[in-house]
Amino acid sequence: MNFNTIKVGDTLPPLTLPPINRTTLALFAGASNDHNPIHIDIDYARRARMPDVFAHGMLSMAYLGRLLTQWVDQRQLREFGVRFTGITHLGHQITCTGKVVEKFEHEGEPRIRLELQTANQYGEAKVLGDAVIAVGT
């Protein structure tokens, strides 16, 4: 991959994850040290008027990070940000996608800007984001 062959509109190979389950949430809570009970305690979630626990927003961001680093070396990542647009519930199967939306140079370094998204199996966006990647010429 290089700057001259990449085109605006090109897409990254999608990343589809297994459905979210309680084990995934427990493992992510341990790995991230985010033990917010809304993500791991069904009684707490129900007291908060939720039907059940749901995924950490940062889990979805981590999935988008994996999408990026399966495409380029992490040392090429210059910017990465997201906004959370929906709740990822148990049983949702998340697919991460990315699309090139801009090519530019910054201080002589060729870069591309990507729009990123996670969506469930129903096509509902859960996280929207963007990233800037340095690419060779």
TrEMBL record:
Residues 19-107 form the MaoC-like domain. It comes from the Bacteria. Coiled coil: none annotated. PANTHER family: (3R)-HYDROXYACYL-ACP DEHYDRATASE SUBUNIT HADB, 3-HYDROXYACYL-THIOESTER DEHYDRATASE HTDX-RELATED. This is MaoC family protein. The lineage of its organism: Bacteria, Pseudomonadati, Pseudomonadota, Betaproteobacteria, Burkholderiales.
